[in-house]
Hints:
The chain is built from 21 helices and 4 strands. By secondary structure, it is mainly alpha-helical. It has 2 domains: 23-290, no CATH class; 311-564, no CATH class. A hairpin with a 5-residue loop joins β3 and β4. The longest helix has 35 residues, at 128-162. The chain starts with a strand and ends in a 5-residue tail after the last helix.
Amino acid sequence: MPEATADGTNTPDRSAWRRTVPSPRIAVELARVELRRTARWTAGQDYWLLYMAISAFGLLFGSWRAFALGRGAGRALATGGTTWFLAGGAWTLWATIWVFLAGLTIAHVVGSNGDVDHDGHYLTLRPAADIVAGKLLAAACGFAVFVFVPAFACFLGLAIGQGTPAPFLGGLAATVVTVATATAVGVPMGFTLKGAIRRSTALTRLKPVLAVAVGVAYLLVMLTGEIATVIEQLRPVLQSPPLGWLAALSLSTTPGAGASAIGAIGALLGGGATVVASTLLAVPAARYAWQTDRVRPENEVTEAVAAPTHRLDRVLGAIARTPATRAVASTTLRRVYRSPLQLVFVAVPLVAAIPVADALLAAEGVPWYAPWLAVWYGAWAAGAAVPLNPLGNQGATLPSLLTAPADGQQVVRGYVLAAAFPVAPPTAVLATALGAGAGRSSVALMTVAIAAVGLVVAASVLAVGVGSLFPRFETLEITGSRRAIPPSKVAYSAFSTVLTLAVAAVVVVHDDVARRIVAVLVSRRLPIDLTGNAAVLTPIAWGVLVAVIVGVPLAYRLAVRRIDRHHLS
């Protein structure tokens, strides 16, 4: 209804407008505050700083490749030729980046970054539209660096190759449009999915499973080379409007590229319309996610270390006879299922899948080292996820554990069972499948499968020993409202080093190709020429394996003693 002013004239009611359309000034201020909070929070988190450092190396590597790609295209244009990038690769790359960024934004919003639990007072002071716009702008700024840096490198190479700065204009415009539209589309989709999960008991239960499934699917797609198949199947869609317009816009200022002017204009106009429409749609989607009571599974309770009556216990009973061991294993697995934040700390090595995917795309096949990389990651993840901090992972239940009837042996066995039981089978299957794709013989495949299971179990035992020697009890903020207790950096480093040496020793003993490659690497780093006599590495590798085999029972005994003798201070 119109409102009457002091002079008696009527003005439109602005409340409906303010509930729907955000204030740009307030949105910028909220985004600035959120980015500053994120920066301060990150500065105090050691593991996140480590992850950012690793990500920076990956970003620099990708930027260098992008620079080489752009420089090659620029030189080709200068000489009247063409390259894969100019013949259609740019269209596929820009569209793939857009899809990946939109998916990343959806995951970002579905997680705790889309919550206002600790800042709920905002909703009583500002309309939801302002908060949504602030979160959208903060997400766009946070993701922008991962697109701007390689894009700048690519068009710098293109400009150097052509000898003109003109390509920068189109590249900058395409980068802005890509980041803005992908995040704008991802935010309302993320809020809608978040609201559906909060309203559904089944989805709430399945959320951890779905998160793990997405991670496993990512690893499978990258390691098996199916990412190339997926992109190839989607190529007609990726190169067609409106996603195809992004490449046209990026090359619109590049002389001789032949980019469509209509496509460039369509990217600009369509991008602007998409940002506006998606921002407006994000407001009701955010209300749908925020203005609801979260469902709670009926059996979601905190349980002490006692013999559980969960059906998981019946499955574990076939492996562990001692009730206390089953109790520790079952409780540990359910804790990870209900709060899978510990799995964040085993996601960092997935960055290694990037060069593997690059090799797959170049060779169009599974490389010889892919099965062993899967074995290493499965064993490392099994140890680092839970057993690497057996005392610290207990949190508030540590006093109950130390005073329970379970002794150190049963606790250690429970942790090893909880780590190896769900990880060893898929690791063996994945490694065997990759070995088959690489053309390995039946005997080699059997060796890989046995090594996968053995290394997963050994890694779990080693992790318990190292983690009990270097425990960590301080929590780490995963997000603004969620905390977890990661392993100590000393335990993390020591365990990773020992496991890497063990897997490398197995590979050297088993694979002649690996022996030759390691011989070349050693000859480059040390004043020893082994390129003509790689067999010398075999006894060294056997020595490492013997040391690891001896170290496994020692780690077991150390963990039992440390847990039995641990006292609360």
